[in-house]
Amino acid sequence: MDSMRERFAPVVTRLLDEDPRVAVVLAEIGLAGFEEALRRHPDRVINVGIREQLLIGAAAGLALTGLRPVVHTFASFLVERPFEQIKLDLGHQDAGAVLVSAAASFDWPAGGFTHMSPGDVALLDTLDGWTVHVPGHPDEAATLLRHAVAAGDDKVYVRLSEQANAQAQPVDGSRFHPVRQGRAGVVVAVGPLLDPVLAATEGLDVTVLYATTVRPFDAAALRRATDTAGTDVVLVEPYLAGTSTSAANDALAHLPHRVLGLGVGRRELRRYGSVDEHVRAHGLDARTLRERIGGFLDVREGLRVRAQV
Predict the structure, then answer these.
(1) Is residue 67 within 8 Å of 44, Cβ to Cβ?
(2) Are residues 155 and 182 in the same domain?
(3) Residue 149: alpha-carbon gap to chain centroid
């Protein structure tokens, strides 16, 4: 199976051919994938070099002329380094763009902490009006990229990862998708963490919702799930733990409820290691997830251990 990032350039190249509004803005990273597109559309494939602030500024300028810029580099260079430009050049000027990241939270451990961005979604959450897609499979990435480009002049972030689920799920760019029904609680699995969550909850009497679009947060789907599964909720996100707990709390503000946010911890892991080692260190492997989900929801092998209070 090819990766999400390997799908990125072919999908966007086709969009360049199909839509004269689409432009691509790069900062060296990913340029090789657009060599043919650059020959066909030299005025709409732009490489600004290793200048991430300019990357966003140029995209905003293109948007203000009526183009639909697609902007790509590693997440830490796309969201964290040029955050002021995202805030002002895009947000303050009401200019839309599609930001497409690579490397996710820790997809390239050998790159060190400079190439890790577990806080990207939380950081964008401080700004108004962003749609955030977190695909869990290359097919989903292709679909969500098309959704993002077609979203008028909106501000959209598409978070690509080397980690992926074995099978694609239906995605529509807005709603959470129920993949398992239960009565002892709701687990929301985001993007590439669906497979670990399904393995972790095997045999447990819980509802599992699959989220690939996390902003706007699908409060209606969460409320529907709690009608039959109770109001204990576990969020399992591939970025900073707790990023969506406030959104879940807001969705259930009219009900007594509990929310547990699982994800990447704040403590920096200073050894390179492998992706799998980082997954285990942050407690995102199936065994640890089962312990934490089961303990919070008081369930084991389909049974509620004690009555919900």
Answers:
(1) yes
(2) no
(3) 16
Residue corresponding to tokens 């993949």: 179
Domain containing residue 73? 4-159
pLDDT-based confidence at residue 306 (cuts at 50, 70, 90): very low
The region of weakest confidence among 61-70, 179-188, 198-207, 293-302 is 293-302
Kindly state whether residue 172 falls inside one of the protein's structural domains: no
> Residue 53 contacts by C-beta under 8 Å, 6 or more apart in sequence?
81, 82, 84, 85
SS3 152: coil
Do 140 and 264 share a domain, yes or no?
Answer: no
- Pair (191, 103) in one structural domain: no
Whether 105 and 45 map to the same domain: the answer is: yes
On the question of pLDDT at 240 being above 60, the answer is yes
Q: Which amino acid is at 210?
A: Y
pLDDT tens digits, residue range 77-128?
999 999 999 999 999 999 999 999 999 999 999 999 999 999 999 999 999 9
Say yes or no: 151 and 240 in one domain: no
> Could you tell me if 24 and 36 are in contact, meaning their C-beta atoms sit under 8 angstroms apart?
no
Instruction: Tell me what pLDDT residue 168 has.
Output: 98
Q: Rounded distance, CA 272 to CA 116, Å?
A: 11
Using DSSP, how many helices (H) and how many strands (E) does the chain show? 12, 14
Residues 9 and 152 in one domain: yes
Task: Give the domain CATH number at 42.
Answer: 3.40.50.970
